[in-house]
């Protein structure tokens, strides 16, 4: 049985390894968690040397959920994108199986009338790569007809829906500046917890209070345990508005899963971080 857990980034001022050179921080992170969201690829296709560094710093079992560039998903809205998609796929090829899935995050304006465009785009992606689609248009959450149509389109190509849960974040008024900012930026949508494939993906956003975040993930703890017993291999990304505690929280979530499903393999032991010295 396999569970991957991770965060929205691999470096943060509050995390171990922050004092390391930038090209070593992923190695430190990968000793704490076994997956990471590839949000940086949304802004541009990485350089080949950057991808080579990612390969060098991570073990083969580590997983990246790589977001397709915004040129593809937001600017061109999946139309006339063969060139940039091919460039992206060629660049990430050295990661091999470390690529958990190609993450197609769509803008909130991408709605039911665009489903045919999405379906055609997904059919053109390589069959050997998993696909994970994140939608934010309210109709896909509030209208069961469109929710079902989306599931049909994804299921036809073996794609998963990224389950983005902000219900705990919006469950009570913000109590910090980071929470106030998250309230302004994050989508407020109903929670969905259905899995379409054997590799479901969850992005869970809690609060800056670690205890409230852990209390709020009980639904996902139960769901992950059920998925495991169904033979699925889920990936869970833990966010908080300031993300200061996210690294430790991701490990804690994994530990709580293992307490209920001992067959799940443990996470690696974190690498020691040597203190800075004058000599």
Automatic annotation (TrEMBL):
Gene3D superfamilies: Protein of unknown function UPF0759. Pfam families: DUF72. SUPFAM superfamilies: TM1631-like. This is DUF72 domain-containing protein.
